[in-house]
Specification:
This protein has about 250 residues and is an alpha/beta fold. It has helices spanning about 15-30, 45-60, 75-80, 105-115, 145-155, 205-210, 235-245; strands spanning about 5-10, 35-40, 65-70, 90, 120, 135-140, 160-165, 195-200, 215-225, 250-254. It folds into 2 domains: about 5-120, HUPs (Rossmann fold, 3-Layer(aba) Sandwich), CATH 3.40.50.620; about 135-254, Rossmann fold (3-Layer(aba) Sandwich), CATH 3.40.50. This is Nucleotide-binding universal stress UspA family protein. InterPro entries: Rossmann-like_a/b/a_fold (IPR014729), Universal_stress_UspA (IPR006015), UspA (IPR006016).
Amino acid sequence: MTLPHVVVGVDGSLVSVRALDQAAEEAARRGIALRVVYAVPDRDEAGPVLASAASRVRQRHPNVPVETRAVADGVVRALVRESADAVLTVVGPRGLGGLAGLVCGAVSSRLAAQVQGPLLVVRGECPHDDRRDVLLGLESDTSTKAALYALEEAELRGARLRVLHSRTHRHTSPEPPSLIPATSPGQEGRPRVAVESRTVHTAPAHALVAATRDAVVVVIGSHRPEGRHGGHLGPAARTLLHHSHCPVVVVPTR
């Protein structure tokens, strides 16, 4: 049986080290394991990179179980496959090539549209201590799964949840009816989470990017039509992948 774990893609670059550190923190916060994946044509090349990654994690988070895996495949296919049984998949923001450049251009959209679970893209500068809010961007009424993830993230961090609705969302109240199951704190021993909500009627993608300046992480859904493996990234999700000031979590929704 596979234990709950976070997956992170590395390639030996300095940029991917930041993704590794973020993934290790996510695993430690959840009390689960970390799987470090290196997608490379020749698996023999992966040994030193994976050994270095595992050593770094064990030094910083000795209580986090670490597994390394070399995969002879393309990075998108490898991480899509690895995401199937992962609690969270983590990748770095940019770089010269390989996984470090994974989220540049069309490749980032392919991965975000195909992963089978939440994807965290490490963006922005190093986190500020005064950033406490988890930000949730809503583009449609089908984002309940993304809302639930954002609520759980706020609970894990002891943070406030800020919800920003685009003008296409038909609900404007602080707690939209479609999200009541996801934003009902204080039940079954769960900690109470403060929820703040507002609606943006113009340029929602730009408003969402601006709001990420004060957030520790932003969560947004990626719509997946029934019966299809891939999905469609809305304008806000595409904009966040390239311009967010904090890490972005893309959550597949139906």
